[in-house]
Write a structure and sequence with these properties.
Blueprint: E1 2-8, E2 10-11, E3 14-15, H1 18-32, E4 36-43, E5 58-65
Antiparallel strand pairs: 1-5, 2-3, 4-5
Length: 74
């Protein structure tokens, strides 16, 4: 299975820039050991049900493999 996690460029309601999202994403990747499948830059989202990023945020979305298949084929 695949999943994604969003990282917002905003902090405390204030836009910090894409660097903030990159720092947060890198910390998460190091902490979890997740190997990304794809990384997308997000901009001007409508909220689309992700529950993570609001209407005017920018940020990053990291797609990754979850479950037993995460280590297969590497």
């Amino acid at each position: 299975m695949i999943a994604f996690r969003d990282f917002s460029a905003s902090r405390f309601g204030r836009l910090e820039g894409i660097d903030h999202a990159l720092v947060e994403a890198n910390e998460w990747l190091q902490r979890t050991g997740v190997k990304p499948l794809n990384i997308e830059t997000l901009r001007n989202l409508s909220g689309g049900g992700t529950g993570n990023i609001g209407a005017s945020d920018i940020g990053l979305r990291i797609w990754y493999v979850v479950g037993a298949q995460a280590g297969a084929g590497q």
